[in-house]
Amino acid sequence: MLRSLFLAGIAIALAGCTQEAHLRSPDGQYIGKATVEFEDNDSGNITLERNGLVYRGPWSAHIVDESRKISGNHGIGSQKYLNYQRGWSSYLRAGQSTLQSSRGDILKCEFKYRATAVYGNCSSEAESFEFVTES
Q1: Domain ranges in the chain?
Q2: For residue range 73-102, what is the model confidence (pLDDT) as tens digits?
């Protein structure tokens, strides 16, 4: 029951949440911006502005299993591990999206996030860059 209430609270908190991100070239230069919209904790939309083009598309994500890492660092009997197993943790999620511009240009994006701290990368046939949430 508590787990259901906890997960429902997270879903409600993230519903409609929008996170701004910077786009950076491999050498760290600012090259554009993105907006990541959370419809729920596992899906939403991305709008990305780069080189005068606007790319849009839906994204979806899944939970990354961190149980081995947590048990290795903290022990299988630790409170942190038990909370993770009960669903009382802020889970790391891995997402992906294929964005398209009005011209038909395609960007493939992969990213990870915990709560709304998003970091990842996007690439086309010609370029690759990262995006990270603003701090």
Answers
A1: 2-133
A2: 998 989 888 888 888 878 899 999 999 999
